[in-house]
Write a structure and sequence with these properties.
Among the domains are: 53-269, Porin (Beta Barrel); 338-388, no CATH class. It has helices at 5-25, 30-50, 242-246, and strands at 64-77, 87-97, 102-113, 134-148, 155-172, 186-187, 189-191, 197-199, 201-216, 221-232, 256-269, 367-369, 374-380, 383-387. The chain is rod-shaped, with a radius of gyration of 36 Å. With 388 residues, it is mostly beta strands. The protein contains 3 helices and 14 strands.
Length: 388
């Protein structure tokens, strides 16, 4: 695990400034420059947090509900041509935690894309630029589920599925290169894939998937970084507008929407102490197992079944805070027996720990020292025993 957060920050800041300088040299409007730098800034802040924050104790979202907002980039794909640029969208969502791993999401997103080419047959690729007055206004409502792969981590990856309803309208902003958040110009007339003229406005059911990660700043605040794909069902209408000025051969009826986004979510409710041991979940290393509160390491939230580590559970251990000496003598009671034979000489100094000294005044001290080795002597009946 990476622990040294601060040394990484200068590198991230340097990368951010480098990209910002590149954006200033490109032929984007001021709004676009600010937008891209904002994305880089949010991403850099997320990375800066990741390099210095380790795993949380728990980020269980079950029984919680959250409100959030998203900001991202999107592109229409899947048409006969590649005329869509990459442009902005915004969103709001509601999230309900069902279990630690499953949640339900309801979201509404809106934004626009524009023609990203100036020559018929050209591919727009990942360009952010556009010199056209057409804006494809997109509004998309979805309902979906998420599966959280690591609900006990701050850095929690997830996958999701959703179904929704998407409305698009290609509008002419009359030469205005920078418009309001929601374009409101006239809907243009173009072509569908069969060559028929239509208003370039339609609504479709969608199915899609999301892959991302959620980073928890705390139990109540998180940030998402994710990719999402939505499939438009049964679209045959030009949703970029190139057919308006280049004719029906350049109908770009896209049936897919790709999005990359950053989101911020605030959580409310939930059970702040699931095991009712008096330690909040965010500080509890075992949030679903109550602490035994026996005065031994109670602050970690995990029960210690064997405080003294002698292999005997505390409920069977007569001396739960003193380890049994496991010398084969009354080991089952959990209490150390320093003088097994009860002769007043502790076993560590007793050469005959299972046979009591006769205490007859003769060598009762039972130990003698030589310059090279320490030997303990014991008179046991007619015999002497010793141990080096």
């Amino acid at each position: 695990m990476i622990q040294s957060g601060p040394p990484c920050r200068p590198m991230i800041l340097s990368m951010l400034l480098t990209h910002a300088a590149e954006f200033r040299e490109r032929p984007f409007g001021g709004e676009r420059t600010v937008k891209r730098i904002t994305i880089l800034t949010l991403t850099a802040l997320l990375l800066a947090g990741l390099v210095q924050v380790g795993p949380a104790q728990a980020n269980d979202i079950s029984e919680k509900w959250g409100l959030g907002a998203t900001f991202g980039e999107m592109k229409l794909v899947g048409g006969q041509n590649d005329y869509s640029n990459v442009d902005q969208n915004f969103g709001l969502w509601y999230r309900a935690g069902l279990t630690p791993r499953w949640s339900l999401d309801a979201a509404f997103r809106f934004g626009y894309v524009r023609p990203g080419v100036t020559t018929p047959g050209e591919d727009a690729g990942l360009t952010f630029d556009s010199s056209h007055a057409f804006y494809t206004n997109i509004m998309h409502g979805t309902l979906g589920v998420r599966y959280h792969f690591a609900p006990d981590r701050r850095f929690a990856p997830y996958a999701g599925l959703h179904a929704g309803f998407l409305d698009f309208r290609v509008r002419d902003e009359g030469g205005n290169s920078d418009v309001a958040l929601i374009p409101d110009g006239e809907i243009v007339v173009g072509y569908d894939e069969s060559g028929r003229r239509n208003d370039l406005s339609s609504a479709h059911l969608t199915l899609g998937a999301t892959l991302g990660t959620e980073f928890f700043f705390s139990d109540a605040v998180s940030m998402d970084l994710a990719l999402r794909y939505s499939q438009l069902l049964d679209n045959s209408l030009d949703n970029i507008g190139a057919s308006v000025f280049w004719g029906p051969d350049h109908t770009d009826a896209n049936d897919g929407l790709v999005e990359a986004f950053v989101g911020l979510t605030f959580y409310f409710g939930g059970n702040s102490d699931k095991d009712d041991d008096g330690i909040p979940n965010e500080n509890d290393a075992c949030p679903e197992v109550p602490e035994d509160m026996d005065g031994f390491q109670d602050e970690d939230g995990c029960p210690e079944l064997d405080n003294d580590g002698d292999g005997l559970n505390d409920d069977c251990d007569q001396c739960p805070d003193q380890p049994e000496d496991m010398d084969g003598f009354q080991d089952e009671d959990g209490c150390p027996d320093p003088d097994n034979d009860g002769d007043g000489v502790i076993d560590a100094s007793d050469s005959c720990p299972e046979t009591a000294e006769d205490m007859d005044g003769f060598q009762d001290e039972e130990s003698r020292w030589t310059p090279t080795v320490v030997r303990w002597w014991r008179k046991s009946g007619p015999n002497w025993c010793w141990r080096a």
